[in-house]
Amino acid sequence: MNTVALLLCLLLFTSIAQSESIEWPAYGGAKGGGHYTAATQINKDNVNDLKLAWTHRSGDFVAGKPSFTEDLTAESIRTRPTSFMVTPIMVDDTVFYCTPFNRVFALDPATGKERWVFDPQVDMSKESITNCRAVSSWIDQKDPTASCGHRILLGTLDARLISLDAKTGERCADFGNSGEVSLHAGLTEHASSEYSITSAPAIINDTVITGAFIQDSHRPDVPSGVVRAYDIRSGEFIWGWNPVHPDRPQTDAEGNFTPGSTNVWSTISVDEELGLVIVPTGNSSPDYYGGDRDGHKDYYSSSVVALNASDGSVAWHYQTVHHDIWDYDVPAQPTLVDLTINGVKRPAVVQVTKMGMTFVLDRETGQPLHPVEERAVPQEGAVPGEYLSPTQPFPVKPDPLHQLGISPDDAWGLTFWDKSQCRKKLAQMQHGPIYTPPSLKGTPLYPSNLGGNNWGAPAVDLKRKIMVANTKHMPIEVRLAEQKDCPEGLPFPQLGSEYCVIMTPVVSPLGIPCTAPPWATLAAVDLESGDILWQIPFGTLKGMAPWPFYHLIEGGMEMGGPMVTASGLIFIAATSDSYFRAFDIENGDELWKQKLPTTGNAVPMSYTYNNEQYVLVAAGGHFTSPEPAGDHLVAYKLSP
């Protein structure tokens, strides 16, 4: 081959290589989470050149009244706005996403133009939430070009698992009954609103796996929190794991999965090489009183559990909270990353928690890779009938990202007057270190049951081994009351137990949190050393507080999560001021921000297509957001 021909071949090869897309094939960017992209076109030097590329609007939203700054009631939940928490996926040169009403859209990656839309016809009048975090993708390695050779899997609020042809949006008729499987099958009697799918199904090889959201603190015999696996082609049931004590039966006399077990509402991870399905579990119902649990219902509660993908048997489990009566369930997808700790390289699971504590576990054994200590916790003040765990696990490394507990000395205000009112309010409650039990006097949870960290965190830079997590720092009062004293219309009545629960944000008469700002932070953690590299205030109070206070106070409300890029950027929206921001992962410097149509309470994603990198985020609000609900899916790319 002569020199000219060789150069032409090299140029052709380079052109083909550059035109290959970098996809975002799953909710977390990969089947093991991480919210990480290998794309590097957008970097620290040019991120300021990001401009709006396109916007897609579905029309699927409902305006309402935010319910964070008032007592939570059934009415406030019923009338709250929709939450747009979706992270799109990009596979096979198509962007796919679901709306709060479970409609699925397929879009052109360069323009946002619709290719198809699917409507599962969910009766939203029967549902208590509006949420769809993602859809999932599966490509048949035997015949990817066949009809339904590429499938989009959707879990619905009315508990169906639906399989769609990725090319057309039509149902895959060979899956279950006309393209869907009913997840109500095998459960005890329940209302539609008590059992919903809100997170993307997990896929390992030719198996699709799902848990479910189960209505919190309603009754002790809620439907089972079973995790179920199905054949991805036929929809045939393969196995179910019900998180009951190993000594207790998985099913009842009627063959239904035993009710009352903890659930898996958040995103599941899979490790195809080890053949593991790794699930984050919730806490047992009712959430804030455990006197009737008899110990067995807590066995897998608030834990990270590894299941064998072949049969659903437990490989290992690690509990992050013993006898959880604070709703400190495990809220985020377990993140899979290989780490070298003390000179030994191991496959790891990184698990953030509502307590702001991070557990780093061995993926093969479940044992901590950084030390964890069992420490004594408060034993006084529980309501009659309750029992407490004498100790709780505290990671030695990394340090917690949140203060662990609260006292009247932590009271804060804009003026001496509202500070004194906050001090008085805290002094009247049963305050103390973390794990102070819920009480009849009221107990301020700090971290709160919203976090600490929640479903949007963390992002992990797989190259630098740095974890990025957004953390909430806002106290919430949990007060138990005897059933005879419980007001009507409570959203968390804890029926069947001796106590209902009443929850109220701990705020001053001015409606401002009673603890000092920042109320939201963003942090970077070296996962191998366990050191916190930096932690900064995150967001402002613009739109919530008058001038000049929103300039003086840093770190406003947030709900969402971060994404990281191989070029060293962090992208995150989440804040109540409705900005989408980019930060330098090395030092936390803010490099770029763009105003969104409303708050972006979702996890961003990124992909490359036709040699251009795009960054997408859903801007549609959340029920805790002060900004209005919306339906904007926005995409950015570098300006020409």
**Percent of residues in helices:** under 10%
Strands ordered across the widest β-sheet: 1-35-36-37-38
Low-confidence stretches: 3-18, 72-76
**Helix count from the secondary structure assignment:** 4
Beta-strand level of the residues, as a percent range?
A: 25-35%
Mean pLDDT: 92
Question: What is the number of E strands?
Answer: 41
Radius of gyration: 24 Å
Protein name: Glucose dehydrogenase
Family: Belongs to the bacterial PQQ dehydrogenase family.
GO molecular function: quinone binding; quinoprotein glucose dehydrogenase activity
Cofactor: pyrroloquinoline quinone
Please describe what this structure looks like.
The chain has four helices and 41 strands. It is mostly beta strands and 640 residues long. The protein has a five-stranded mixed β-sheet, with no helix packed on it. A hairpin with a 5-residue loop joins β15 and β16. The longest helix has 17 residues, at 3-19. The radius of gyration is 24 Å and the shape is globular.
Descriptors:
41 strands, single chain, Quinoprotein_ADH-like_sf, Glucose dehydrogenase, mainly beta, signal, 6% helix, 640 residues
Summarize the structure.
This protein is mainly beta. The two termini are 38 Å apart.
Walk me through the topology:
Layout (H helix, E strand, L loop, with lengths): L2 H17 L16 E2 L12 E8 L16 H5 L10 E3 L2 E5 L5 E4 L6 E5 L17 E4 L10 E6 L4 E6 L14 E3 L12 E2 L5 E3 L2 E4 L2 E2 L12 E5 L5 E5 L27 E3 L4 E5 L22 E6 L5 E6 L15 E7 L2 E9 L5 E5 L9 E5 L14 E5 L9 E2 L9 H13 L3 E2 L9 E3 L13 E3 L4 E7 L3 E7 L16 E7 L14 E7 L5 E6 L11 H4 L9 E4 L3 E4 L6 E6 L5 E6 L9 E5 L2 E8 L12 E7 L2
Parallel strand pairs: 1-35
Antiparallel strand pairs: 2-41, 3-4, 4-5, 5-6, 7-8, 8-9, 9-10, 11-14, 12-13, 13-15, 15-16, 17-18, 18-19, 19-20, 21-22, 22-23, 24-25, 26-27, 28-31, 29-30, 30-33, 31-32, 33-34, 35-36, 36-37, 37-38, 39-40, 40-41
